[in-house]
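We give the chain.
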Amino acid sequence: MNAILLEELKNLSPDGWEVTETQTSAWEFYFIGHKLDQHRVREVTHVNVRVFRKTDDMLGEASAELAPTLSQPEVKKALENLWYEASLAPVPDYRLVQPAPMEAVEPVEEPIEVTARRCLEAVAAAAETAGESVNSYEIFVKRDTEHLMNSEGVDVTQQIPGMMCEVVVNARRGGHEIEIYRMIRGGLCDAPALTKEVEAAMRVGKNRLTALPTPVTGEMPVLLSTEAVVDVCRYFLNNVGAAYIYRKMSPFEIGRPLCEKADGDAVTLRALRTLPNSSQNRVCDDEGSPVHDVELIKDGIPAHYWGGRMYAEWLGLSDAFRVTNWEVEGGAQSAAELWQGPYLEPVEFSDFQVDAMTGDIFGEIRLAWYHDGTRMIPVTGGSLSGNMREAMKQMRFSKEQKQYDCARVPQVVRFEKLTVAGAMSS
């Protein structure tokens, strides 16, 4: 930790402070096709400071990133500015995170160059054809060494790995060509999964080229089996967050069922300390609160709130933290059982959203599978809409789960009634 910064914080004597120093080692690769266009290695340090100032029973804060190369007079001036800014928008007083025992996360043994090589090999292993191929891709692999300290005595250092792969694939048919974009994230590199994601993107492009306009169906069963499932499940995570609860933006309440007269699968949501290959396996959150396993919703009934120190303190929560990894438990039926009867299964959206506050669901369909009971037809265009507060009553989850970086969710979610606006009249 920067000794000059700590000395000037002591001289300033604020009513509280928090410093996070993150040292990042990163390898980056930029490919056009499978030809390396650029390779960059980064070694950078970021220092973020929060300063707190009390006024009667109120507490103000201000934060900034300070360059690690600042001189002592420059650090002093920057902290004085933060001290002033902290007086401008105070909120009800709360305590900063206190030191507490923390479970250790296993250290990262794999060297960064090994992770990078495995990512490169995984993309190169994706099977291409004359009609489908990789257009370009970028791979970012990093190791963050994060050192967090605060005025209450918290002093934690943790190493956090991360990888991100951005891929653009092309599909061609006749004189028509289409691009499909994917962003895959993780802690290290799950090479087989990365290869499958690239190949799946190429299949989406291939089917998109032959898709028919989405028919007008009105309300019908809709299945989701892509990362859109994470957006659906995050609706539940957000609504047991302390910020939503305190600001009365959430209808959820501990001990009260999420919905009455439901005949779908009840939601069980957990915060998890670790997940295999997650980029968020940490000993504590970004304020220093220990991270641990806890059931947030059990069988459709909220059981625990999560959140940052400020809202947690205001709600009187003693062991809350900012969730890093999380999962929604699978349901009673298999994915194969949910893939039955007439339904629409969007597998590529131009845009998909689940509003955390209102529950509104909206998606613009780029490619979907329309099953009329006997045939499976690729379709495109149109949209789907609905609302989680009503749709969750008949929502079903597959037994099987799939992980998307720090979230493990059911592989398939089935809604019995969402509105499908087709791309043509019936």
User: Anything to note?
Assistant: The mean pLDDT is 95. The chain has two domains: 3-207, 213-426.
